[in-house]
Amino acid sequence: xxxxxxxxxxxxxxxxxxxxxxxxxxxxYGNRHGLVTxxxxxxxxxxxxxxxxxxxxxxxxxxxxxxxxxxxxxxMMGEAKDFxxxxxxxxxLDPYQFQEFPVIFWDLFGEQGHPIRATISEMGPLLLxxxxxxxxxxxxxxxxxxxxxxxxxxxxxxxxxxxxxxANMADRADQLSARYGNVTKPSVGAIQRTLxxxxxxxxxxxxGEPALRIADIMRTTRDGRxxxxxxxxxxxxxxPRLYATFLLWLMSELFEELPxxxxxxxxxxxxxxxxxxxxxxxxxxxxxxxxxxxxxxxRSKGVGVYFVTQNPLDIPEKVLxxxxxxxxxxxxxxxxxxxxxxxxxxxxFRPNPDFDCATAIxxxxxxxxxxxxxxxxxxxxxxxxxxxxxxxxxLGPITPDERRKIIAESPVAGQYDETVDRESAFExxxxxxxxxxxxxxxxxxxxxxxxxxxxGFDDVLGTGNRRSSSRQTVAEAAIKSVVxxxxxxxxxxxxxxxxxxxxxxx
Length: 506
What we know:
The chain is of the alpha/beta class. Helix content is 42%, strand content 13%. The chain has helices spanning 44-57, 82-90, 120-132, 136-151, 159-171, 173-180, 185-200, 240-257, 277-280, 285-298, 317-320, 336-347, 357-363, 400-408, 425-446, 474-504, and strands at 6-13, 19-26, 34-37, 62-66, 103-107, 114-115, 228-232, 269-274, 303-309, 325-328, 368-372, 384-388. The protein has a twelve-stranded mixed beta sheet with strand order 2-1-12-11-10-3-9-8-4-7-5-6, sandwiched between helices. A hairpin with a 5-residue loop joins strand 1 (6-13) and strand 2 (19-26). Helix 5 (159-171) crosses helix 15 (425-446). It is elongated, with a radius of gyration of 31 Å. The relative contact order is 0.17.
């Protein structure tokens, strides 16, 4: 059996299908990243579950997304079932002990876990442009918006802050274009419409304060186990671009905030990126380059990143080359692309003379995988056909009552529940607009512009001589009607020109 310096993955098999040896992930290479791939229903979620259990027991905090709800079972004690006990015997897992693990549930929508938020400023123009699928010209306007916010001391915390700033930019388009380059009202309008769509999709719940503190996903318990942060992503997957952008933001925040630590005995945090293909689909080159840079350098900060996806072709080559620990479940090879995926997966392993890797990938049973972990000196081990060990926690989802109990007893309970809306760009720009209006009104009063006189009609609206009769002549009534009409329509038009765009951001 393995020791405290490794995680037990399962048992490899000889050509005659008899037991060969224990397969393990060495904790000192846990920050060298990894890849878990395989078709739907082949056992990827269980592989993710046992890796998360192993890291937690080793004192390593884990962050992972729960796409289907099945991973929530890691928070509850497992139960002895015939097929689990049989698998434990096959891989010589003795004793097979059941555990519940320390879990913190998170949810961008605040429904199945603690709310999780980021500010607009933290997200930055590159990720926001990716999230909103902006054109190059619109991305340029977004960069200018962030530059103006920095120069004018405008905090961008939530969506209404960004909406207010963009509206202000549209009003100053000519002035800003002369200084920063072309800022057109159509580009600003297109961004505003996209923000409205994001707001309707629930992104407004994500942007704001209190923002997530990285320390809260790097907790350990009193008994030395790493907390497992589980992001409820079943609803989030209805907006896959928001899901991918959020996880990339979180990975970037870890990269920016954590200090350099070099190679440790075990990682400081392990980050599982499920449905990883969503990160790279239609992504611009600059974003893929950024991901490759983060993956390459974040290991020196003690963070391991594990991509979970169906197909190794989903991961760009430069990123794939950084992933040292690999678990390959079965792939189907019906179409030319699927056949190419099988060949690609096979070619990334160190060959084993006992079997043909490409053939084996198409023949693996559920819960069986080709495994290659880094050995001493960081060299990939020869690929082995492996039975994956059964999990110690529950297989399948927990009940709503169980989830509510865990959330109520969470170490971060109450810290993120209430939204904080402090003074930021929206309030500052609104205040400036009101001050400009008040100044204009005072100017009008001081100039006497409120007295309108019409020759031949005894100072109808002023304070001069009035006719003594209390009855209005037909001419006086007509003039007053015209003035009221002019005052109301023109006045409303002026107010809309000054405040309308800000009001839309409310």
